[in-house]
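Exercise 7b. Backbone tokens:
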């Protein structure tokens, strides 16, 4: 079993926590968009409170460990590894509850190039524990407005993990799936469950719009979030998201393997 001390060291060495690649400029831009209620930053959350940029900076300092100084406007963001570890424990705790109850679980990611392996291992462990890992609405079209205009994607599943793919032949470098912040994929998946008359998920696991979109609809949702993803942390603060784990969500995929083992062990899931 990976010790907490060893995992903390790995978080810092890999850039998953500590000084991360996400820039302060990028995060502040996201905070401004969120404060203006831009759908790209809301990711499906409909905040009850008015969140200004200073409010968001204070929240992200509390939840992630970024600088609380509004005058800090450049450089790299910092994530406190202790906050990451505490949130991973809470994340694993929710998985353990789901496993003990044989829950229905929906898992989806907007970061398939980096996080697919992490989520797929969770899907395997939950399935082995007796949970039902849902794969509804496979192949259904999802139309998403991007900065390049309206684009159509297909909802797909890899090892129980939902993701978006561009229709047509897969291009080199895009085989894994498309990056997305949109809540439309999870809404499509949930609509597919309802149309099929199946059991709705007891828990939704993922990131970006998968967590925010599901949480806003009243489903228990847990996930991972970077310092430029304030929506998940606002959702957590307002009780819409159960757990948001602060980490850099775009490092090398293999760097998440120690986190995978740690979470599986803490949740008492098969590895």
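Sequence design result:
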């Amino acid at each position: 079993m990976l010790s907490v001390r060893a995992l903390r060291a790995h978080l810092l060495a890999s850039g998953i926590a500590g000084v991360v690649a996400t820039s302060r400029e990028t995060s502040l831009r996201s905070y401004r968009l969120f404060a203006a209620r831009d759908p790209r930053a809301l990711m499906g959350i409909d905040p009850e409170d008015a969140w200004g940029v200073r409010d968001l900076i204070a929240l992200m300092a509390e939840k992630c460990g970024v600088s609380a100084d509004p005058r800090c406007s450049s450089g790299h963001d910092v994530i406190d590894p202790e906050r990451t570890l505490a949130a991973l424990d809470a994340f694993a705790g929710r998985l353990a509850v789901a496993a003990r109850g044989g829950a229905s679980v929906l898992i989806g990611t907007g970061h398939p190039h980096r996080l697919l392996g992490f989520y797929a291992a969770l899907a395997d462990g939950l399935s082995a524990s007796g949970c039902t890992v849902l794969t509804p609405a496979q192949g259904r079209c999802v139309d998403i407005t991007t900065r390049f205009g309206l684009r159509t994607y297909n909802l797909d599943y890899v090892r129980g993990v939902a993701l978006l793919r561009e229709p047509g032949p897969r291009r080199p470098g895009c085989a894994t799936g498309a990056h997305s912040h949109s809540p439309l994929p999870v809404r499509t998946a949930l609509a597919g469950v309802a149309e099929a008359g199946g059991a709705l998920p007891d828990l939704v696991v993922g990131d970006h719009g998968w967590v925010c979109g599901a949480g806003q609809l009243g489903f228990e949702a847990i996930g991972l979030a970077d310092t430029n993803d304030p929506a998940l942390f606002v959702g957590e603060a307002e009780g819409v998201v159960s757990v948001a784990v602060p980490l850099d969500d775009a490092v090398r995929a293999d760097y998440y393997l120690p986190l995978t083992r740690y979470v599986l062990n803490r949740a008492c899931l098969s590895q």
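Instructor comment: The first strand starts at residue 18 and ends at 23. The chain is about 40% helix and 20% strand.
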